[in-house]
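Protocol step 4 of 6: structure prediction from sequence.
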Amino acid sequence: MNISRMSLAAKMRAGVLLLSLTMMVLALPQDQPDIVWQAQAGPAIAFSSDGQILVAGNQLRLAADGTLIHTLTMPRVGNGINTVAISNDGQYVAIGIQSFNQNLHLYNAPTGTLIQGRISAHNNGTTSVAFSPDSQTLASGGRDGTAKLWHLPDMTLIQTLNGGVGYRARIFAVAFSNDGQLLALGGQAGVLIFRVADGTLVRALSPAVSTLCLAFSPDGQTLAAGSDAIDQYGQCTDCTIKMWRVSDGALLRTIAGGNNGIIAIAFSPDQQVIAAGSGDSTYDGVVRFWRVADGTLLRSFNQTGSYVTDVAYSPDGSLFSFARVDGLVVVAHNPSSSCSGTLSPTSHVFPASGGDGSVSVTAPAGCNWTAASDVSWITLTSASSASGSAMVTFEVRENATGSARSGTVTIGGQSFTAMQDSGLGDNCDYTISPTAQSFPAAGGNGTLNVANAEGCAWQAVSNVGWITITSGNGIGNGTVRYSVAANSGETSRHATIAIAGRTFSIKQK
């Protein structure tokens, strides 16, 4: 994992917060994770494949509680640590530093001893390191515009990728594919994929701009890259996460990161979420979590006064860690799954004349979400994004099309469906079947069918609380699904469900 902004080392020297305790507790704002432990140990991190160890800078700590195992002796530090990695077999730790030469070191992880050090891997700094899945090869990338493959543990140079003479676009990230056959490079030239066996360029991914970080999805099917393309005015022209299909290089999704450069990314082990560490022009940082399926922002943790330089999930997904440029490393319970909300209601039928609507969103504090309409005739009248519980309001415009229609408002990845009547009520001859149903005292579930002319909208409404409509509206023919709660009283009871002027009766013992 790596830190790649050119100015980070200078900012680190000028802006480090002088914290005296190695292990410490901070008073963090409300939109922060459930912290397990934190320490001055960064600013680059990596979990071991068994999840027992977190490599944080030149320290090895127990991931569970932060207990210090080893402090790796740095034969040369230069301007600071850029990148760290631990091999899958748990035998090696590699550290790349920001120095003109002697900028790559290899350690024995169990003992903490130096195996090979003072390796001048790249001119002007080693920016990224990654071990092959079989732990036999180490890849490194650097500011000299090359990536190199090293044999372990003797660190014999196997081959140099993207070589040549003269100026070459700097490389800020390297990542092996899950089967070890491909090596992805990210840098000023975008994203390139090479075949490890012979160093052949397989493809250049498009569109890709200045790239600081890479991550393969856990299933190996997707490659994600984080961009940080800054113009002369300090504005980000492309601060996005892009995802490509590995097999053919097809662009699958682009997630906007605002004016925050994407410095580090990581997929959750269940590959449902992608986390990113960022920094902006005011020297503040943020950790964000997006849903992979649709790019919905789920949650964010602001870090005032310090860039977020690295992010990592433990292999079992129970822990999440992030590092900052001031050296603070935070390990927390996985926050990705804790950000989920509910909508009420989830659908509604509007008359042809239109009207105002609202949806209540219930979500945890610090859970960020966005709302958007997929049709032009539904317009949001409230803010399109919020945090925690809130209300989304909208306006449904008059329907002059002569037929019923439906549209969706997507809120935090969940859907609210608005259906609108055509206004041609005289042509809508509704029938329902059956027209009645009896239930025992224990209650149960039931269905009824609705038939009418195509293009006629309808909605089912219960007149009591002990009958819940689970699926109760539609356009044209459809099915109403409902549940009847248990009757704890001594007498029988009855109620109705109304559907477009028709009545369905329910009796319960």
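Step 5 (inspection) to follow. The chain is about 0% helix and 50% strand.
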